Amino acid sequence: MKRFDRGTLLFFGVALAFILTIQVLISLNLLGDFWVTLLRIGAVMAIVSIGLNLIYGFNGQFSLGQWGFFAIGAYTAADITYRWANDQSASGLVIVLLVTLFVGLSFGISSKLVARARGLDPLSSFFLYLVLVILAAIIAVFVGRLLINPFTSFLIMLPGWLSMQIVFILAVLLAGIVSAEVSYLFGMPVLSLGSDYFGIATLGFTIIVKVLLDNSDTMFGLVEMKGARGMIGIPKIGSWLWIAFFLLAVIVITRNLLHSSTGRAIVSVREDELAAKAMGIDVAKQKILAFVLGSLFAGLAGGLYAHINGFLHPNTFNFIKSFDPMIIVVFGGLGSISGTVIAAFGWALVLEGVLRLVLPQGFETWRFVVYPLLLLVMMLLRPKGLMGGFEFPYLRQILPPLPKGLQKARIEQPSQVEETSAGD
Amino acid sequence: MPNNDSIPTSADVSKAKTPLVLDVQDLSKNFGGLKAVKEFSLSIRQGELVGLIGPNGAGKTTVFNVITGLYVATSGTIKFKEQDIVGFQPFEITQMGIARTFQNIRLFPNLTVLDNVRIAYHPHAHYGLLDSVLHNKQFSSKDKELTERTQEFLSVFNLHERQGEIAKNLPYGEQRRLEIARALAAEPTLLLLDEPAAGMNSKEVVSLMELIHFIRDRFKLTILLIEHQMRVVMGVCEWITVMDFGEVIARGNPADIQLNPQVIEAYLGRGAAALSQKLSEKRTYAP
Fold this sequence. Notes:
The complex is a heterodimer of chains A (424) and B (287). With 424 residues, chain A is mainly α. Chain A has one domain (38-397). Chain A is built from 17 helices and two strands. Chain A has a two-stranded antiparallel sheet. In chain A, helix 6 runs antiparallel to helix 12 and helix 13 (323-332) packs across helix 14. By secondary structure, chain B is of the alpha/beta class. Chain B is built from twelve helices and ten strands. Chain B has helices spanning 10-13, 60-67, 90-96, 113-120, 129-134, 137-156, 172-185, 202-219, 230-236, 254-259, 261-268, 270-279, and strands at 20-31, 34-45, 49-53, 75-80, 83-84, 98-100, 190-194, 222-226, 239-244, 247-252. In chain B, strands 6-7-8-3-9-10 form a six-stranded mixed beta sheet, sandwiched between helices. A four-stranded antiparallel beta sheet of chain B has the order 2-1-4-5, with helices on one face. In chain B, a hairpin with a 2-residue loop joins strand 1 and strand 2 (34-45). The longest helix of chain B is centred in the middle third of the chain and has 20 residues, at 137-156. The radius of gyration of chain B is 20 Å and the shape is globular. Chains A and B meet through helix 9, helix 10, helix 11 and helix 17 of A and helix 3, helix 4, helix 5, helix 6 and helix 7 of B.
């Protein structure tokens, strides 16, 4: 059996060619900083939007919380690399690592407890989770303090660029995990609400995150985040190659998931929740799964985003901006990975790039008129999004051929009668 | 209204003493002040084909929803193979072996025929999330197995050649057939069919009746069915329970039910019941 089919090779060939061409152009200084930044932002937006598409497009849960998880990821990763780059201290890394680990463990314990106490309502089980999470986090911080020094001295032994890269990648991954864990905790009570109420609750979440970030220095004592003044001094190491690599990984993970039984179960919830329940699908579990994965991607994207400009401001994470990934997803097509990626790059390059250059001086803000109009026209002409249900090869589901025995065989059965009436 | 005790349960009437599959006792379901189902009892033995009929709003579908866990019973017990299933989640009940179809077909409209049925096999997919994400060896072999099993299953219903079709594009009769196939893919021992013949033309009804007999024999099923078309009920069911205003008003075999004055009254009113009493020798009830 062939390991890879033509579609797979084509997809990876084109993707790698695209990534490397741009990298070569960057290395040769043929692309201005302006366009490089836009390309990186486009890729980051693609990751966020794929996450949202998983939640909204594939699982059918209207979520405006994606931007909040993006913010959590951005600030988490920024804090870790900031401490390393400016203070030569792995404190952020170690503490976040241990907190995610312990919180993950506490989730495991809580879920066991909840499973044992059958029929616990969502709110009570949420409080059980919450109490254990807080306990786990406190323990993690105390244990973490002991480990900071050995860990820091280990990292210092490595060459500077290597330790920076290690801290950066760990920071991005941890940013994703933190977002995922927060989304798990938040999603548990909220996902049991109906779809509209869920949307409103997630909008509230984004607003809360923004307010917390505004006061991060005073409320949590994280002085380096500087609250509403904006965080500066984050190392600008979010290179195109890393971001593109993460985008590719996210695409592959999403694609693989959707082409599996788990993915089909996720999609069945969107198609008909009641029927899915009646088919033996644990609907609540699928919703949480999609939500957590979507938020994981948002966190990763946030972690990457923080290292593009080296500057973060709570206003970037204003809830109004939470409509950006939503617009990208709707524009690209609900339930289309290809569409989402194209729309994300289009959003970055056209809206922020071309329009900014094309519109005359002083009219830049008109792009916020152009793009709702574009969206309106789009909805009228192509209500299913730019790509509709279209997917590139490899991302597309391939219908498995019938097993040999079935191709011609006719099984003796009564439904032959129906075969004739099928045409009416 | 007759006293529940005087109405024999289908299990009492049945001659064959196979084990009980479903045993519902004194089931009630209230929505606020509305008593949708009042002290409903029903026992079904293995292999039986039982009909549940009654005028619109009699509470038949509510009974289905309570049995499958979509609603929680206000009071009463439901035993499935001797296990009390009240309070279990719908998906758990399905995994125990009760599958259902819906009154207005509820397929996964935008998915293919193949995926509609493959989803029902999800609880039997023996690979985890990590395998799904990595698409490793474990995944490939298990997923292939799952797919082939689905395709073979589809062929039983003659749907295998339409495996790639989007479910909502199928003709009505085939959508019904697919819904029944999907329910059976969940590997139930008890199948609940909610008005399977609704909206079908007479040709489709005939094949539906054949299909019901066919699946019962092939999958060794016990079937409980709600139906309005008397042709289906009389042609398919061995035992019938009649509900009106949330209560059981009659039980028996199809021939007895046709002549039962209470049933005629429930459907057609008191005058018709009196008339039919007079003519009962000459006339049988027709839909």
